From TrEMBL:
Name by which UniProt lists this protein: Aconitase/3-isopropylmalate dehydratase large subunit alpha/beta/alpha domain-containing protein
Residue ranges constituting the Aconitase/3-isopropylmalate dehydratase large subunit alpha/beta/alpha domain according to the UniProt record: 1-341
Matches recorded under PANTHER family: ACONITASE/IRON-RESPONSIVE ELEMENT FAMILY MEMBER
Keywords: Iron, Iron-sulfur, Metal-binding
Pfam families linked: Aconitase
InterPro entries assigned: Acnase/IPM_dHydase_lsu_aba_1/3 (IPR015931), Acoase/IPM_deHydtase_lsu_aba (IPR001030), Aconitase/IRP2 (IPR006249), Aconitase_4Fe-4S_dom (IPR036008)
GO function terms (MF aspect): iron-sulfur cluster binding; metal ion binding
Length: 341
């Protein structure tokens, strides 16, 4: 049997990327497990999801997971366990796999598993696990039939196929994570356009919150580093965030702060306004805090249709901020781009 984990966070399936069955449960059930009682898991419907193709250059894990979310919602995978496999899955980093597994609740599924392979072992070594433990994981996975090679011959009652090469740059919104929109289609969809406005006033439809946040994306080094490099380029060119945009950086752990500091990139994000506000859900969970009083006053008095953009996993109506009538999910580098656009 694979390792198992239950957690009270709905995005506990994040850990599925490591080949661990991780599911979200209620607080009472989690407490009973902590007290030594069993947690009963119903034998689920298991759906195989074959990932084919290779992602296009410049496409982030966020772009991929938003496209997969749209696809899986259409396929109705509610309460199932998903098992990702195929050449596309082989090519994904652990960070990319975790971004996909993280949004299991948004798929409607219960778990979204990836198999254990050399990349899993490399990740365990990179994150400081003892060699004895790493060897145990590898040996057990191969012996128990949980290693990637053993699962390539698995047969599923239901198989879905998703082509990674079909994914372009995406955002999701203005509400619901599965409402994917290609950035090249924003004008066609009526989401963006030319806005005429008086000098010194906030435009209607302005982005008032830009947040790099959530376990979905800040746990992926490639996404965070891409955002920091974009911030550095913006600073070099003298670009600044718009004065009405409230910016923030809320990593999932202090490891993010550590590697940004080691790469001399945290200061680049801070210069653009993306300073660390905490290691928590923050904006993704509707806890972005108050707006600048003058900005809030203008939004109210002019009845502006303000928006938010965040690298989170949920953007339901009214969730992000009372004065952000729309909210869009986007990759961390796109969050930076929209803050200065």
């Amino acid at each position: 049997f694979p390792d198992t984990l239950v957690g009270t966070d709905s995005h506990t399936p994040h850990v599925d990327a490591l080949g661990v069955i991780a599911v979200g449960v209620g607080g009472l059930e989690a407490e009973s497990v902590m007290l030594g009682r069993a947690s009963y898991i119903r034998l689920p419907d298991i759906v195989g999801v074959e990932l084919t193709g290779k992602r296009q250059p410049g496409i982030t894990a966020t772009d991929i997971v938003l496209a997969i979310t749209e696809f899986l919602r259409e396929q109705r995978v509610v309460s199932t366990y998903l098992e990702f496999y195929g050449e596309g899955a082989d090519a994904l980093t652990l960070g990319d796999r975790a971004t996909i597994s993280n949004m299991t609740p948004e798929f409607g599924a219960t778990a979204a598993m990836f198999y254990i392979d050399d990349k899993t072992i490399d990740y365990l070594r990179l994150t400081g696990r003892e060699e004895e433990q790493i060897a145990l994981v590898e040996n057990y996975a191969k012996t128990a039939g949980l290693w990637s090679d053993s699962l390539k011959t698995a047969k599923y009652e239901r198989v879905l196929k998703f082509d990674l090469s079909s994914v372009g740059r995406n955002i999701a919104g203005p509400s619901n994570p599965h409402r994917r929109v290609s950035t090249s289609d924003l004008a066609k969809e009526g989401i963006s356009g030319v806005v005429e406005n008086e000098e010194g006033l906030m435009p209607d439809g302005a982005c008032i919150i830009a947040a790099i946040t959530s376990c979905t994306n800040t746990s992926n080094p490639r996404n965070v580093i891409a955002a920091a490099l974009l911030a550095r380029n913006a600073n070099t060119k003298g670009l600044m965030r718009k004065p009405w945009v409230k910016t923030s950086l809320a990593p999932g752990s202090k490891a993010v702060q550590s590697y940004l500091e080691d790469a001399n990139l945290l200061t680049e994000l801070e210069q653009l306004g993306f300073g660390i506000v905490g290691f928590a859900c923050t904006t993704c969970n509707g806890m972005s805090g108050a707006l600048d009083p003058e900005i809030q006053k203008e939004v109210i008095e002019r009845d502006l249709y303000a928006t938010a953009v965040l690298s989170g996993n949920r953007n339901f109506d009214g969730r992000i901020h009372p004065y952000a009538k729309q909210a869009f999910l986007a990759s961390p580098p796109l969050v930076v781009a929209y803050a200065i656009a």
